[in-house]
Write a structure and sequence with these properties.
- The complex is a heterodimer of chains A (70) and B (292).
- Chain A has 70 residues and is an alpha+beta fold.
- Chain A has a single domain, classed as Translation Initiation Factor IF3 (2-Layer Sandwich), CATH 3.30.110.
- Chain A starts with 9 loop residues before the first helix and ends in a 5-residue tail after the last strand.
- Chain B folds into two domains: 81 residues, Alpha-Beta Plaits; 201 residues, 2-Layer Sandwich (Sulfite Reductase Hemoprotein, domain 1).
- Chain B has nine helices and eleven strands.
- In chain B, helix 2 packs antiparallel against helix 3 and helix 7 packs across helix 9.
- The chains are: A alpha+beta (70), B alpha+beta (292).
- Chains A and B meet through helix 2 and strand 2 of A and helix 5 of B.
- The structure holds iron/sulfur cluster (SF4) (3 copies).
- One iron/sulfur cluster binds next to helix 6 of chain B.
Chain lengths: 70, 292
């Protein structure tokens, strides 16, 4: 696992994911509810991958990667 | 009843409401689903300047009101508005203007064509007499922007999700996304699956919209039909009449029956929801759904 782990808003997530190399993964920690919804929406719109999502009690961890095509 | 009272009841029928100032009236305009064209708005501006005091008031139900119109100008103003295709709204004990959110026309969450349904309901029910005021609202999904459950009849776009194993990459996103925590991962001998607790699911379409691999498909789509909601002096949130109505025909049939039942059983000035509480929800539901 490469990358950073901190709460980011959707736009920063998008920017960060698009800077990843093809096979790199990024773990992001977001707030439950609206937080994870926004990020999931942005990732879906920009076609990126969500590999694993886990509820950590104090937030939700998402492991994401670049879309396979790009 | 005095002449004046008669007068204001008749005016209420055509959306004119007496103000506390003598001879001054509010003109309540009709905008089905809250939509007006730019040209119509321009006409409203002209009329508000000419016959009102140059301002409009936006009501909580997507309506435009022109205030301070002198009673002698009401008819002239009405005709000018009508020329631009703007009709009057309604006051008093009857069906009010139908409100709706943008629905699937422009909203990513929209499950249904809210505007089409609002227009259909308008054609069928607008201004029909009832024991008390009667409000209908159409909202595209469970985000409930037009507050379906605060209306005498509320229609909410609904989907029933269906999990398809094939593409699911077991990411777990849906478990975190579901606002009601209705989705859980279940392990079995054949592998894993994702399942929904139907008791708590609100048919919202978050899972079907956001699953990255499209594994939450729309199994069934339709309308959740609410009856008996009201705000005002004695608020009461609506009750679900049917969780998933699948066709427009059935929707209108049920609304017909619900409205008919209210007109036959509601006491004067008694709102639909308060009638339901007096008679009992189960009895009312049975009467409406029974002969389906
Ligand atoms: S109720 Fe749903 S479809 Fe309608 S505007 Fe809100 S989010 Fe969009
Ligand atoms: S979000 Fe979609 S892909 Fe991820 S676990 Fe749920 S159904 Fe599977
Ligand atoms: S439709 Fe909404 S409430 Fe039902 S399972 Fe999907 S996300 Fe949860």
């Amino acid at each position: 696992m490469q990358g950073i782990s901190c709460p980011l808003n959707a736009m920063r997530v998008k920017a960060a994911v698009s800077e990843l190399e093809r096979d790199e993964l990024l773990e992001i920690l977001v707030d439950e509810g609206e937080g994870v919804l926004r990020v999931a929406q942005t990732l879906k719109d920009s076609g990126h991958r969500i590999v694993k999502v886990e509820n950590r009690g104090h937030g939700v961890s998402l492991i994401v990667g670049k879309s396979k095509q790009s | 009843m005095s002449g004046h009272e008669l007068d204001s009841a008749a005016l209420g029928k055509v959306g004119m409401m007496r103000q506390k100032q003598p001879d001054m009236y509010v003109m309540r305009l009709k905008a089905v689903a809250g939509d007006l064209t730019a040209d119509q708005l321009a006409c409203v501006a002209v009329v508000a300047r000419k016959y009102g005091r140059g301002f409009v008031h936006l009501s909580t139900r997507q309506g435009i009101e022109i205030h301070y119109v002198h009673k002698d100008n009401l008819e002239t103003a009405r005709l000018e508005l009508l020329e631009a295709g703007i009709e009057m709204g309604a006051c008093g004990p009857r069906v009010r203007v139908i409100v709706a959110c943008p629905g699937d026309d422009s909203c990513r969450w929209g499950n249904i064509d809210t505007k089409k349904i609002a227009r259909e309901l308008d054609a069928r029910y607008f201004k029909q007499e009832a024991p008390s005021k009667f409000k209908l609202a159409v909202t595209g999904c469970s985000h409930n922007c037009t507050k379906a459950n605060e209306n005498d009849i509320g229609i909410r776009g609904a989907i029933e999700p269906k999990w398809e194993a094939s593409d699911c990459n077991d990411c777990g996103l849906c478990v975190s996304l579901c606002p009601l925590h209705s989705i859980s991962r279940v392990d079995s001998d054949e592998g894993f699956s994702y399942e929904i607790d139907w008791e708590s699911c609100i048919n919202c379409s978050i899972c079907t919209s956001l699953c990255p691999s499209g594994s939450w498909a729309i199994g069934r789509i339709g309308y959740t039909l609410f009856i008996g909601g009201t705000m005002g002096k004695i608020p009461r949130l609506a009750s679900v009449l049917k969780q998933l109505v699948e066709t427009e025909e059935e929707l209108y049939l049920l609304i017909d029956k619900a409205f008919g039942y209210y007109c036959a059983n509601g006491r004067k000035k008694e709102r639909f929801g308060h009638m339901i509480d007096r008679i009992g929800l189960d009895t009312v539901k049975e009467a409406i759904l029974g002969t389906e």
